[in-house]
Amino acid sequence: MTRYFKRIKEKLGDKKGMTTLEIAISAFIIIIALTGFIDMVKVSQKLDTASSITGYVGRVVGNQGGVRTTAPKHQYGNYVTSEQLYREVKTILENGGVKESDFKLYVDGKRFKEGTNIALKDFGERIPVKLEVTYEWELISSATGLDMKNTKESSRTVVSSFKVRNATK
């Protein structure tokens, strides 16, 4: 055993090839750092897009008092239907790097998809909006061999500014 340690000590004392080894280790560290930085930029773009979408959906839902497949009778001005809203959400998230299978949108506790009707809320009622986005550290995962997937939730609670009018004439 002592002979083995003596050999190691002699090898460490020999400086031949140390520069090559140092360059290889430094290159490996730099490559990992660059892939981590690139992944961090991609993930932060996805999370920023998710936060923006949550705000946008909150504004639309709060202004309209909900989302329906058709405009309510007493809705004045432009009305964004659930199909239009879902299509816009999907397009913006895809442009931000999030696939349709990687997000779930909930409005008033109900999973929101095309054709979803969210009941109208009267003026002053709260409407929770939640977006769950699954993202992956792609380059780091492939460089290290680890599966690095996470889920981030973006939530907003908005107040309905739509006055439900039930008067009949």
Give, in order, the helices and strands.
HHHEEEHE
Q: Main β-sheet, in a few words? A: 4 strands, antiparallel
Structural class of the secondary structure composition?
Answer: alpha+beta
The residue-averaged pLDDT reads 85
Give the distance, in angstroms, between the N- and C-terminal Cα atoms: 101 Å
What helical percentage do the residues reach? Answer: 40-55%
Strand content: 15-25%
Poorly predicted runs are none
Estimated radius of gyration? 27 Å
Count of DSSP helices? Answer: 4
Widest sheet, order of strands: 2-1-3-4
Q: Give the number of DSSP strands.
A: 4
**Mass-distribution shape:** rod-shaped
How does this model look, in words?
The structure is a single chain. Helices cover 47% and strands 18% of the residues. The chain contains four helices and four strands. Strand 1 and strand 2 form a beta hairpin. Helix 2 (18-64) runs antiparallel to helix 3.
